# Entry
Amino acid sequence: MTEVNGLHLAFRGLTAGLAAGWVWVAVALTGLVLAGSDPLAATSRLGNGTAGSGLISALAIAQVASGGIGLVFAYFFGRYFTVRSTLALTALAFAVLCWLATAYVLDGSWLSLTRQAVLVLASVAYGAMLGGAVPTRNEVLRQRPTQPAESPST
# Structure
């Protein structure tokens, strides 16, 4: 695989990760509201103390993290996998492991099992989008059909 194809794959992973990041945020916020938790309470520490600035900071962090995860996943996994189902299952596992590692570093413990379940579900949705949007190695290497050479007009 050439470096140009690898960079193309990394870019596709970045864009897939950014799009899937919005899905993660939507599922997380909806799930936390349905679980009876205040989704903005955790973000107030990120901004200048207000819920609005904390939410904006949380969205920015989520987008940077999700885009970075997509880029890393596509470059290091998508370039070696040739079967869509393998790539999709790996994306799910990778997204959940990234969330669990982040949650453990941030919380240090599993205080709210309901909240963790909602955020793991959001990570599964993220991984499903990532696994569906990142191309496999065969799709990146597939050559486009060449156009027949036109004869010069006389």
Summary: Residues 21 and 63 are 6 Å apart (CA to CA). The chain is about 70% helix and 0% strand. The longest helix spans residues 3-34. The mean pLDDT is 78.
